[in-house]
Amino acid sequence: MERNSKTISIIIPAYNTEGLLDKCVRSVAAQDYPADLLEIIVVDDGSTDRTGEIADNLAAEFENVTVIHKENGGSSSARNVGIAAAKGEYLGFVDSDDYISPEMYSKLMDAALRHGADMVQASRDEISEDGKRLPDVVIPPDGEKVITPEEHLKSLLLHTGDASFCTKITRRSFFTEKMRFPEGELNEDFYLMIHMLEKVNKLVLLPGQYYHVFYRSGSNSRKKKDEKDYFPPVFTDIVRNADVAERIVRRNHPKLLPIARRFGFVQRLDFLLHIPISKMTKENVFYRRVVDDLRRAFFEMQRNKYLAKKQKVYLALLSIAPKFVRKTHARIRRLDS
User: Fold this and answer.
1) Three-class SS of residue 121?
2) The pTM is what?
3) 226 belongs to a structural domain
4) Are residues 239 and 183 in the same domain?
5) Distances (CA, A) of 324 to 27, 290, 307, 328
6) C-alpha separations of 258 from 154, 247, 253, 272, 305 in Å
7) Which of 194, 256, 329, 332 has its CA 20 to 30 A from that of 85?
């Protein structure tokens, strides 16, 4: 079967990215994959700047670009609208502040057809606002690698895998009405991925870094520099999703349970290391629950072989006296600076 024989729909959710959308869409339109097999859907999620206008101009320029305008509902909502409109046999996603290399979708589809894979993943790099290359969040494999869904789930729970749908193509048939991005939440890729992995046959991982993340401070999941007490909601969602992952593991992959427990501990550690001290109060029910979870599992944490020694120390200290530890840590950092 020829590598360019399948249709692909690329969904680009866009909200107030007037300075970045043009580069993003042009990078998708410039793919060496046949334009008549590549459907590009830009979903303007109720933008209040010129994003919608720029998207319409791009649709007028490229025959395979269409635009959907909708009321603001968040990235998951925009993606789901795009999924409902998509006609391709495979789906891909690109965030409107990112861009991709010209060969990305031809490489992904070639691997999908050669291996009969439901899902194929490219590697990614990250670029900071000042144009500097950041350290790799996920280390690319040395070469093309075929893995089982359980192996990918294990990598996600060990924080070595990539949960993003933006680096992948996936058969559209898996995006059923019950298998969509959760709306009103962040960490949405991880949530959908751990559920969809129960359905796909295999994954192919490619070493090529074809997807380029533009790291913007102030985006949904990143801390805003000018808001001292801002607490990104993603840190709450990662704890909730860790619990969802543990339930899936208990039901379908019991041998991964120690790794799933380790994942839940690390996500709670991340929560406690980022929550502003001003929000560490008795009135904060979710914060109290996180601390109580760690206290109940104190000895289990220390026995978990998948936790690093440093993680165990931090978890022990934060479970005993979280607010005191955070205040002390803040004072030490001020002295060092």
Assistant:
1) strand
2) 0.92
3) no
4) no
5) 49, 16, 23, 6
6) 11, 12, 11, 21, 8
7) 194
